[in-house]
Amino acid sequence: MNCSDFQRRLLIDPRSPELAEAAQARVCDDAATRLTEALAFEHYVEAALAVAVPSNLADRVLAALPADDLPARRSTALRWPLALAASLALIALVTTSVVRAPNATHSLIAASVEHLSHEPYALTRSAVVPQTLVDRMFTEAGLKLNSSALALSYLNRCPLKQGLSLHMVMPAPEGPVTVMYVPGEQKVERMDTRLDMVAVRTLPFANGAMVFLAESNRDFDRIENAWHQATGEALALAAGSD
Amino acid sequence: MNAKRSEFDQLVRRLTPDLFRFAYWLSRNEALAQDLVQESFLRAWRSLADLRDEKAAKAWLMTIVRREHARLFERKLPPIDDIADVVIEDHSPSAFDMSEIQEMRDAIGRIDSKYREPLLLQLVGGFSCNEIADQLGISAAAVMTQLFRARAKLKALLRGENRGNVHELL
User: Fold this and answer.
1) pLDDT tens digits for B72-95?
2) Taking CB atoms and an 8 Å cut-off, how many pairs form between chains A and B?
3) What is the pTM of this model?
4) B85: distance to nearest CA of chain A, Å?
5) What φ, ψ does residue A184 adopt, rounded to 5°?
6) Which residues from A are below 8 Å from B120, CB to CB?
């Protein structure tokens, strides 16, 4: 290793044992000083990277894990019939529950309710999502918003049906309301219904559709109002409430 | 609770700090980083059968965090927070005062993610150049180049050199 190589490698991995040996061998006149400085810089970077970890994060991760035991690995041959059976059961359930729903609305409701179980921790968050982030993610979804009146405690881009949707949670007096915005979903009709224990509202919204999901639909009108205000649309609220 | 679950719980407690820091510096947003860690552990639990070697758990989980972050932000986004405006409480003992730490955090936040990511894997993950190369799917030589540039850019930024045009040393 020559002096030039030594200096280059100080910026790649200053803790490499080979560099300590090279410094002892004085590959450069000031190799020891350069190594000491590089290690001090490394300590400086590491101190900066060591941001404080939120208290109880590990506990919250564990609490969000399913309580049941890990499913055993199954053969592919066995897995697909089980998946098919589960899908058919879900379809049967949804057909029974929202039998009058138009097809696009029906499948959007099923997909939204199913998605709730994928991100259960979304409902437990309390910090307000920064407005800049809300605006930016909606701009990317093709919708210009004035989000100042929208208090979101959760925002994520999630796969729903065949595209990416915005999955949000809004705190409300009767409990958190999950809001899904599905860009491009234009065949959905306005509807208030229930699927199992979940109150659901669907409505056409901007260039797509919106789905509200909560334990009760009592806050849906207020939430819908807030979204119409955010887009500057005229209010057209339904009267459905528990 | 079965043995697998008990082992996984220990894994969560052991790796949460490093995964959170990794996720934080990828997303540069504390709330998103917490979500990334939660979602990644959830995905890991669902596919635990894919983990063949317990020793590889950290690399496996960091890969899940990276993919989850990429899934959320698959289109290139500008930084979520201006890192200079974010002051994070720090309880770790350090020879540096908070203004120095903040200055370095500002610099880390400003280097391009293609340089920052290998640096995170090296310093937060503790991986070698070859291991980083495996995780990122690039050559070890490319990793070395990126690590070199990451540190060179940090030094240049701390010296106050032009933030938009850091001199390339390679």
Assistant:
1) 765 444 444 444 344 444 444 445
2) 127
3) 0.53
4) 13
5) 85, -10
6) 49
- Find the residue in B nearest to A158 (Cα): B72
Q: What are the residue ranges spanned by the domains of chain A?
A: 1-50, 51-230
> Which structure tokens are listed for A210?
């919106």
DSSP-based helix, strand, coil % in chain A, nearest 5: 45, 15, 40
Under an 8 A CB cutoff, do B35 and A70 touch?
A: no
Rounded to an integer, what distance in angstroms lies between the CA atom of residue A107 and that of residue A120? Answer: 21
| Helix (DSSP H) and strand (DSSP E) numbers for chain B | 7, 0
pLDDT of A181 reads 93
Higher pLDDT, A8 or A130: A8
pLDDT at A234: 41
pLDDT (tens digit per residue) in B137-152: 899 999 999 999 999 9
Residue whose C-alpha is closest to residue A61's, from B99, B101, B59, B9: B9
Strands (E), chain A: 154-160, 163-170, 177-183, 191-195, 198-205, 208-214
The mean pLDDT of chain A is 78
Min distance B70 CA to chain A CA atoms (Å): 11
Picking from B6, B11, B42 by the largest number of A CB atoms within 10 A of its own CB, the best residue to mutate is B42
